[in-house]
Amino acid sequence: MAVPMFRIFKHPPSFPSSKNFSIVLPCIATLPYCQKSMARLLLLLALLSMASMLVSADTHSDCGLAETAFGMCIPYVMGNDPQLDPKCCNAVQSVNDLASTPKLRRDICDCLRKMLIHAGKINSGRLAGLPGKCRINTNVIPPSLTFDCSTIA
Question: pLDDT of 40-52, one tens digit each?
């Protein structure tokens, strides 16, 4: 026979509400049952949390990491910085290291391409020449805003 997890108790008439007001209180008399139910609930929440981390750990967080790193290069590729900052080249290397599989290379390339589109006016010559200027052989950095990242192997 299942024991209810909650019992309904009526408050005395002096309680500042209507006479029929009732609240739900956790069961105290059936503590072992509550502990088992709570343990099952916590286990379920832990499993769901781990599953969601596995799903989101693929490209969503990699995209965020790539955007954060490549943010160091935005002033240069927009033409606001006259000289290339060494931090930008470190960022290009970090993005290249992050893209360890063909799928990640395509996803990160597309992520950066979208970021650059939203950034505003980009100097296409600086963008296309960025990996060479940093002396990093990579195809993850899109050479233009119209580049088709799905062609990356």
Answer: 666 556 555 655 5
Domain that residue 102 falls in: 60-151
41 lies in the same domain as 89: no
**SS in 3 state form for 92-108?**
HHHHHHHCCCHHHHHHH
Average pLDDT over residues 43-67: 62
Alpha carbon distance 109, 96 (integer Å): 10
pTM over 0.90: no
> Given phi > 0 = left and psi -120 to 50 = alpha, else beta, which region is 24?
beta
The token pair at 107 is: 């996803």
d(CA 5, CA 37): 8
> Does residue 19 sit within a domain?
yes
